[in-house]
Amino acid sequence: MLCVRGLQRLKAIFYLPRNTSHRSLTSAEVLPKDDALLKVENLSRESKKGCMLCNVTVDFKNIQLLSQFVSPHTGRIYGRHITGLCGKKQKEISKAIKKAHSLGFMPVTHKYPEFMKDPRICSIKHLD
Amino acid sequence: MPRYELALILKAMQRPETAAAVRRTVETLMERGAVVRNLENMGERLLPYKITKHNERHSRGTYFLVDFYCAPSILDGLLNHLHRDVDVVRPTVLKKEEQEPKKNQQNRQRRDEKTRQEMKR
After folding, report:
1. ipTM score of the complex?
2. B99 vs A103: CB contact, 8 Å cut-off?
3. Residues 68-97 of B with CB under 8 A from A
4. Which terminus of chain B is more solvent-facing, meaning fewer CB atoms within 10 Å of its CB: N or C?
5. Could you tell me how many CB contacts below 8 A there are between chain A and chain B?
6. Distinct helix (H) and strand (E) counts, chain B
């Protein structure tokens, strides 16, 4: 009895249903037919694009520009992952905003209402 | 190029009084040996936050920008004088950055890129 069971199990193993829809790998199909070397775009070209403020001078007097990088609800400065600026410009903007705060040019806890309707540069979704 | 910039916030006053205050400030600057290069009026507007100065709470102010050249030794005395002036809400002296003209900047960028490429080789 036991050996019959064992034989049945062995049968089950040997007669596994084979998936015939899968294509079998042959050497001819491994290599793509077109180019052996795929052409990849020059990756260093991506870094030359620059952030959106590459040719713009950042000034503490230009509060309209600075207000675009600040939250309309709390007046907090957005981080780099939200503004998408490069390191240099993010630092310049941050410093200019803080300067404008202390000089009495830009509000700290909110944004001037006339700048609320400016186009949204930063990739943040407000639950308005 | 200007060496210093005075971001001056004056109390919201009538035109002749504002003019007198500005005149007073510029004359003080010139007495101390500064050369005033440019004077800009940014207009009267609502202050970003209420400022208390000289026992008075200000909500509106007139903004002025004065570019001038001067010796660094006079700045201390000048700021002292401006803080004491009753009509001045917030005086701030900033150093003005020397900006390179754009043509030179472009040439410099091209030169830097060339040296970078040569370094790679």
Report:
1. 0.78
2. no
3. 89-90, 92, 94
4. C
5. 27
6. 3, 4
Regarding pTM above 0.90, the answer is no
Closest CA to A105 of B46, B18, B97, B15: B46
CB A15 within 8 A of CB A7: no
B98 to chain A, any CB pair closer than 8 A? The answer is no
Tens digit of pLDDT per residue, chain A (128 long)?
Answer: 666 666 666 666 666 655 555 555 555 555 555 666 777 666 665 556 778 888 889 999 999 999 999 999 999 999 999 999 999 999 999 999 999 999 999 999 999 999 999 988 888 777 66
Is the Cβ pair A61, B65 closer than 8 Å?
Answer: yes
Do residues A29 and A35 lie in contact, with contact meaning Cβ atoms separated by under 8 Å? no
Q: What does the domain layout of chain A look like in residue ranges? A: 70-115
